[in-house]
Amino acid sequence: MSASGRIGVLIETSDPTVADSLPPEGFEAGLGGQDDVIVFRAASWTGRGAPAHIAELCREAGLSQVVICGPSPALGLAPESIEVEDGQPRVPVTWAAIREHCAWVEKDEHARAAKIGRMIELAVVRARGTEPCTMTSIPAERSVAVAGNNHAAFRMAYVLLEAGFPVLMLQIGASDGCFYPISEALVGQVTSHANVQVVADASIEHVEGHVGDFRLRVSTPGERTFFRVGALVVAVDAEPGPLVLDDALDGAEQVLSLREYGEVVTHGKLNGQAVCIVLDRDGLDRRCAGQAALRSALEHARQGGKPTLLFRQIPVYGHGGQVLYDDARAAGVTVIRYDSAPRFSLVSGGLRVTVTDATLPDGVLEFPVDRLVVPAPRRPSESHARLAAMLRQPLDLQGYLQPGNVRHRPVGSARRGVYFAGGCHDECDPEEAGLEAQAVLADLMALLPDKKTIQVPAEKVVVDADKCAACLTCYRACPHGAIQPNTSQHRMDVLDPACWQCGICAAVCPGRALEHGSLRFHQMHDTLQVATRELLGRRPIIAFACRQSAVPAADAAGHVGLALPTDVLLIDVPCAGLVGDQLVLDALEQGARGVLVLGCHHDNCRSLWGSDLSRKRVDKVRDALGAVGVEGERVWFHTVAANEPHRLAHLLAEASKSMPAGQIGE
Length: 666
Ligand code: SF4
Ligand code: SF4
What we know:
5-stranded parallel sheet, Rossmann fold, Alpha-Beta Plaits, binds iron/sulfur cluster
């Protein structure tokens, strides 16, 4: 037996097409190596009771590795390891998702069986090099810092406090940056809570650490304090700019900002007055401005007021947008869509509005109003840029903290335990603020259970301190804030709770001092050795496929019955960023006809720049090969989304058709 011990290959037989194509009984004898491989067949190895069932099997058969092979889409949700004995290292799980490679829609039975056999063999090779999974216990702080001074920040604090999380409320920024005022009742509920610590006029100067153990340096006028928290929610809002008005109206007391309008309506001070609310004066206003305008106008109309809403595009989408619009209309709010900018004048101290209704043939309307309401322009506060630099997170084109991309939850970020909520990253009406708070809560319940410690897998990345030149390349490249320089010991520390195992650090380290914990260099080498062997008389093309995008796309291809070319073998990787030049060259050296790297589209990568980094490296390899006379067209990089099975199928078919036949030199 190898160091990995006895390997259990668990084959799902639920799908008749796959079951008919599976290798015959006893095929394990041909899997190579001297491992003790045992095959178990069952309808399904996934689902609720599966981990307990597999744990029992491991105990009975003495398995130290498990490979699950099947067509089930649930394979992607299978646990990465299984606890067999209390306190012992967990048994790692490797999976071969047969449908993802479309082996089951391959018409030719012989080709289908050959491909399935190769996929199982690849999974066994990978499992053979995987170490048992050791969990480590890390002391964890459960309190959550909420940074902000607006309705979204207070809503977040309230929801977390009610769920039992202690809250450090850092009041950062002006409380009037948002279109929605904070309810005094909500402020009272938060600030009087026994489990809250409020720091007024705060500014975050420094953040370090990981989920369960973030250390913050916070300054207030005349003081600097250190806090330890388990998570950080940034809900710092935008800053309101000055109202920009026509000269004629400058300083007119009849003009209110949208937020002021909301406040006076709440206090019932505009009863009976005619008010004109003007949206979209300079381009389109944000959706939350439209929703705030509709809400206040509705309330005002119910109080007997006469609100008129002028707009270019009314936001009726989003949470309850259409309902709000219909309610406002039914309550008597007048709405007018315009194309050319409305004009305002002061006549004998009275306000007049002139607007052309875009829906009427000769729609020029002129009417008097008591008040004019316009949204104040908003811009991201300077703390957005500072926090982004501190957390090493990108800003969007407008300068707001960029939320997670499609791979993250709406409030999630690339750093585990750091969330962007409210107007700091997007629009945020009170309803959305509540939903965002619930999303953060759900995540925190899983990440920070009510215990003094959290359990995380150890050695997600293995560092060889002797090889490390302390060049900091890995520290700069890690998108998840999981690498910290340890200056006293002249080495890099990997923070396991923060690490997403994207593998980018291993790919960028010039000295190969870092290795992905469960995809070691030797494992990939061994996998490639098997993958590049002739299959059906041809050298295969190796497609390194990102588990977030290309692998689900292949799975979807299976769903819709697209057969992927038999001579392209997908090797799944956690992120395309793990694929460095070494891996590409290794695949070619071992005899692959060509190499295809499939990553996420730009800005859709869960590891932020993983896909872009990979593209650059692949381009370099191709150029270098071209420079020494080897066909550069053997190495491709492409992006694909999880919902693009046809694109994936097309790319693989193109590669199969156009990459030169035979390996380099043939
Ligand atoms: S990239 Fe490699 S050599 Fe450079 S600091 Fe990181 S581990 Fe050390
Ligand atoms: S594997 Fe990814 S998340 Fe983990 S330390 Fe390396 S770069 Fe950071």
